Amino acid sequence: MDETPTMSRFDQAYASNTAPWVIGEPQPAIVELEHTGAISSPVLDIGCGAGEHTILLARLGYDVLGMDFAPRAIEQARANAAARGVDARFEVGDALRLAGTSTYRTVIDSALFHIFDDADRAAYVRSLHGVCRPGGLVYVLALSDAGRGFGPQVGEDTIRSAFGTGWELESLQTTTYRGVVGEAHAEAFGVAAGTMVDEPAFLARVRRL
Ligand SMILES: C[S@@+](CC[C@H](N)C(=O)[O-])C[C@H]1O[C@@H](n2cnc3c(N)ncnc32)[C@H](O)[C@@H]1O
Fold first, then answer.
1. Which of 27, 64, 95, 158 could form a disulfide with 57 if both were Cys (CB 3.0 to 4.6 A apart)?
2. How far apart are CA 178 and CA 201, in angstroms?
3. Residues 157/141, Cβ–Cβ less than 8 Å
4. Which SS3 state, helix, strand or coil, does residue 208 take?
5. Which residue's CA is the nearest one to ligand 1's atom 4?
């Protein structure tokens, strides 16, 4: 596993409009999750990026906070919410240092878990434990190692072993994560830059004990 990317690397991706995960809509897997009634307020959308999932849930009446450590992500998320007339809350904050107040019934992690190296992944899971209520659920949507290297990828074992003591992994399904192919991947993927692709992913449901 590569080292965890720095905040400035993410911030730069937003500043230059080159973030391959910014697709202008929520991930289909998260939309589907909401349709099944799997999400309860209060919700934390951690690593919220441009805010699509926070905006989706706020529009539907959930009590949701979108948090990201990249200030430009939060700027874009606020601008996106305002442009769509949605009153959504966003905050700059670090997923590795969440205030441990057992606040949330649901945490949505869309493409955050898979970016961490081993040490940061362990710190992240500890941090998550502190902000989830007992019985609360964390949904992890992560690019899978069955993919073509669209971004950082994880294997099933990485998810299983990350959520050990204090957690119960209730389900682990295969699904897809949608992204937009940048110049760097266009040739390898055999498509023009700007093409949307659905890459193999896992969706884990983990209960905080
Ligand atoms: C691959 S993007 C996914 C964004 C969004 N969830 C989505 O699916 O479109 C990962 C996001 O996590 C944020 N991030 C990375 N490390 C973080 C940390 N330690 N705390 C909070 N946000 C973080 C990045 O700035 C980036 O916006």
1. 64
2. 9
3. no
4. strand
5. 49
CB under 8 Å to 176, separation ≥6 — which residues? 28, 29, 198, 199, 200, 201
Question: How many angstroms does the Cα of residue 18 sit away from the middle of ligand 1?
Answer: 14
- How far is residue 73 CA from its own chain's centroid? 13
CATH class of 31-208: alpha beta
Instruction: Report the separation in Å between the CA atom of 21 and the middle of ligand 1, taken as the mean of its atom positions.
Output: 10
For 34-93, the pLDDT digits (tens) are 999 999 999 999 999 999 999 999 999 999 999 999 999 999 999 999 999 999 999 999
For residue 184, give the amino acid letter: A
pLDDT digits (tens, 9 = 90+) for 150-207: 999 999 999 999 999 999 999 999 999 999 999 989 999 999 999 999 999 999 999 9
For the chain, the domains span 31-208
Residue with tokens 């949605």: 86
Specify the ligand 1 atom closest to the Cα of 7. Answer: 25
The dihedral sign for the CA sequence 90, 50, 21, 52: positive
Q: Tell me which residue has its CA closest to atom 23 in ligand 1.
A: 47
Q: Tell how far the Cα of 79 is from the centroid of ligand 1, in angstroms.
A: 17
What's phi and psi for 171, nearest 5 deg? -155, 155
pTM here? Answer: 0.98
Q: Pairing mode, if any, of strands 132-143 and 104-110? A: parallel
